[in-house]
Every structure is written in structure tokens, then in C-alpha cells.
Give the backbone structure.
Amino acid sequence: MKNAISAVFVLSGIASCTGPDNVEKAGTGGTSPSTGGTGMTAGTTGTPRAGASAASGASAGGGGSGVGGTGAAGAGVSGAPGAGTGSAGAPAAGGAQPVGGSAGVPTTGGMSGVGAGAGTGGMSGVAGTGAAGMAGTGGSFVSCPYTPPADPTATDAITGTLTTFNNNGAWTWYSDERAVVDVGGGKIVVGSDANAKGDGGSGRDGNIDVVLYDIATKMVGPVKVLGDLAPDDHNTAGLLVKPDGKYLAFWAGHNENCNSYFSNYDGSAWAAQKTYAWTTGCPTDTGKSVTYNNLWNMTSENKIYNFVRSIGTSPNLLVSSDNGATWTYGGRLSSTPQMGYVAGYYKYWGNGVDRIDFLGTEAHPRDFDNSLYHGYVKGGKTFDSKDKELDADISDNTSPQITVATQVAKTGSTIGAVKINHLWNSDLMRYDDGTIVALWMARVDTNADDPDHRFFYSRFNGTEWKHTYLGKTGKKLYNDEQDYTGLGAVHPNDPHIIYISSPYDLRDDTTLLPKREIFMGVTCDDGATFQWTPVTWNSSTDNIRPIVPKWDESNMVLLWNRGSYDTAQIYNLDVVGIVTQK
């Protein structure tokens, strides 16, 4: 595809955070209620509240400092203005007092100084026992409160450089990770599936591709073909950086046969394709074969897990105990009865150590009026959101239905003044403090042929799932799939940020745009509300299926598919993205 790029790319997700009204990363604490971050010097006015240290000087003096580490419990609010001009308060237990800078900005879940005076600008960490704040492993990429640019084409907008990683490729959203960052090796690994319509029909139809991007040189390496199947975006590989720093790719056809394929990268070359043949339960009694691959390290068990849709059209598990060299069947995650096409769709997120979360449905939304359910795998067992055991042994021949897991969102309920039905999952993330975030979509009308889709955000705070209406995501992408939309992604290193593809301007949720654009949403109140900034604007073609692979607190890459999408088997798309480093 050789379309001219007419979009303005606005990446406010990573901004300078060194002055007033900007957030400074707070070390390992960030905005998390778990391990506290760096404390901050209070302003010259204000009265400490619960959890803040008392100010020195006049009795009505300085505001409280940030609380860090395992400091005293805090209410998670900034000090209130007060009379007097006492000197800056000392940091509370567990915090460290930085110097210089401007007064910080109060933010939900954090404590900051008020008014002018000495002290660093930015958000302090929250006490480990303080009120629940936004999750995170070290500060934020955005300032809170966040004020998006009024005009995305303004000359002072923060812009990023568009990189084309593959000029012919697409991906489904049910194989993960589709891109991974190898921090130690300085590479971004990006997978996709090629199509004859892309790149002028150059004979790459159905190629399972992977490219390596060198972070230091900012150069995209040559396309490596791992396999060749029927052209279909469902066939894209799931990717993994293994514990030894080398890579693994796993892929399969879309109901093409009973094989899953894999290749290991030894640091210099990809090995020849190997095959895992499913000898039991494939094809199913309805004729379905294997589809999808989802790879996660489980270092606590010295294993790698791969979730594949296979036996009973349910998610089943392959396990490797030798770093990806060989694989064995590991069990069945759920045994939901097949209703229509398949027995549900699942998104996953793993911490790489001992836990893999999942977000599932009962069926395809065209066949059943789905709700959404959450649980997790740990120690060979499955649990619901509140740690209730669901399956004592995932490897045996029995497994529960998805409906025994925690119901995240229910069909027929009303969120944001709209009544929802036929739910479908888009992305899932669990942060270091235990907060879990789900992005999902639903129909809000009864038009089964071309529904009105809306996007929603759900956040589990340890006690309950809370929901936020995000906005319109348009009609179907093409005729045969009533519930395909542009989708969305959660930022894995910053819980303030999400990305949504929509043909509507999410800033007013009314204006219909010529093409589907990527919007960045920022929340400063634990997901209750979002402010929106266009990442692409005035585009000549659609921008769909954004992803943000996990990196670190100072760097990020936003990737998406850009071009025309006729069907899952016919498309003309580039894999593009913006790499931003501090």
C-alpha cells in the first residue's frame, strides 16, 4: 500500500514532565497504592490531612508531603489550603524528599504540595496502606489533571514520527502478544500476516511475518517469513521474549488444520518451523480446527504457557518445560458448551512470573447475547476476580464453564445511559498493585445486521468491577462480521492511558469522521472520566487495532494497522507505529 500519509500524529502520551502542571515519574511507586514512590516537598501554604506529615514552622504552616513506601496510611488527597506560611513539610515515612522544581499538582490517589514554594513538580507516591489510587510501576506518561490540545494540528502539538514496520500485514486481536519489546537486547519484535492485496500483490499472500526493530539505530530489519498459510489475519503469530532473552513465535491457521506451528530465535536467526500436532479432540465434532496462540512466561513453574482455541472450540493449554523446544498438552481452561460458531473468545494478560488473567465470553456475539467474565490461572488452578477457586487442577479432564468466573459486565445492563447487549472483549491488563482493567465493546441497539457499537472501560479495584462509557466505535467493518470494529488497547506501563479506534470524534462523541482514527484517552480519576486527544487526524485511510506492548516507564511504542480492510482474508494494510523514548 502506497497511500500518502496525511494524518497528523499527536502523541501526548509521553510529554515533558518537569514543570508546573506536569507529572514527574515517582520511581517505583508512581501513582500506585502499592509500593510508594518519591515524596515531594509541600508548598508554602496548606494544611496536612490524614497520612501527611506535619509541616515545620508556624502551626498553620506547610502542607503535607507525599507518602512513600510503607509510610503511614493516607487519604490520597492533597493538603487543603490554610493560613500561615510555615516552611515545607518533611516527607513521611518511606518517602524521600526531592529538591527543586515547582509545586506539584494534586492528583487522585496521590498527595502533593499546594501553592507556590520549593519542591519538585509532580506526583508523589501513595502510601502502601493509603486509599486506592491509580495503578502503576513508576509515575505517569501524562500530567494530571490532563488538558488535551484544543487543536491536534496546532504547531505546538507534541508529534511523533511514523514508522512503517511492515508494508503488508495485519493481525487479529485474539493472538498475543503481537509485538514484544526486548529491553535487554534493544529490539522491538513485530508480527503480522501478509495478504495478496497488500504491497501490490507481491506473492506474500498468507506469509506469517516477523520483523525486528533496532531501538538504538531506529532501523526496521528485513521481513522474516516464519510460515505460509492461507491468507487470514487470524493466523498472525503470538510472540514471546523468553526468560533467556531469546524469542518464540507460535502460529496456526484459522480452522485450517489440527497443527500449531512454532519457531525459536537464538539471537541471530529464526529456526525452521516446527509442528505441534493436536492428536485429540481436533477437529471437533462440528468440524472446527485449531486457531490462535497466546504465549506467557510462567517462571515460577519454569514453564511457558500457550493458550490455543482447540478442543471443544474452547481455550486449551500447551506447556513447555524446556524453554520452548518441545510442547505437551497442559489442560483445558474452560468447558463452555459451544453455541453457534465457537465456545467463546478470550483475552489474556500474564505477569511473566506466576499468574495469567483471562477475560472471556460464552460465544461469538452474533450467535449469543454475551456477558463478560474474568478469572486467572495460578499454580495450576483457576480463580475468579476475588480469589475464589474455580478449578483445582487445570491439567485434568474437567474444567468449569466461563460463567462460573466473575461476571465483569452483564448484557442488558445500562452504562452511561445506554443499554448494552452482545458484549465482546478487546483488551485486558493487570497492574502491579492488583488493579485490573478491561476494554470491551457492546451493541446498544437491536439491529442484528449492522449494530451500533460502543466502547466501555471496566476497572477492578480489588472489591468490585466499575464501568465507564467511552464512546461510539461505529458500525461493522465489513458485511460478514457484524461486530468487527477498530478496537482499543490499554497502556501496560501507565494506567492513565488507553487508545481507541473510532470513526467518531471521541471528544464530542457525535462528529462522524471520514476515516477511523486512533484516539488517546487519559483518565486522572481511576477511569471515571477520560479526556481525548487524536493520535491520527484527517487520515486518508483507516487506522485500526492499536496495541501497546509492555516496555518501561520512560519509553513506549504504539502500533496499529493502517489501510483498507475488506474482510479478515482480504486487506491492504501497513503495520505502523510511533516509537517514543525519553
